[in-house]
Amino acid sequence: MDQREAKRLRDLLSQARLGEYEAHCGGDTVAALRLFCWNTEVAAAFYGPLQVLELTLRSVVDERMRELFGREDWWGHPRVNLLAGHQARIAEAHRKLRGQGIPAGPREIVGELSLGFWVGLLGRGRSYDQRFWRTSLYRGFPGHRGARGPLHQELDYLRVLRNKIAHHCPIHHRHLDADHDTILRVLGHMDPALAALVGGYSSVPLVLARRPSTA
Which domain of life is it from (predicted)? Predict the structure, then answer.
């Protein structure tokens, strides 16, 4: 592919989107397209591990919250006292399900809540550390021996990665090998066997090894 053909493809894909790649590659449009294609490939490779992380985190945190408040719709307990942002997400889940004609039961609500919601429950919140983490949530992470803060920080960093992938943003500039290690480490905190399973099938290391030399 020559530069002329590369620029035509760049304009077709969106000059605004490819501009960041060109800047990274010193204005070389051919190299920028290679990097763009590799970025797409590595983003796809991360999808599976991140999906498992999201599903597992949701299951673990929901189980602990149900245990703590003694009901499936634990967010409706008078003592839960969630942040306004968390309450808004639950209300939005109700509206979305009703709009689709689906009964908004506890299981359906849980399924509609995003990764950001579950990560947020491990944040500071309204004394979330004392009320949620120290009383129940820590049991969902038997492999984690430290404080809540570092775990939340790692999960929030992965939330950002997940959102960038979902919105087709560049991720090539991140320390992707460290991101992959973090996914496996956090999964290991919840269940070592699950971390081993994901580590065994993940194609991320292979794709990272194929990063274009011009990038």
Answer: Bacteria
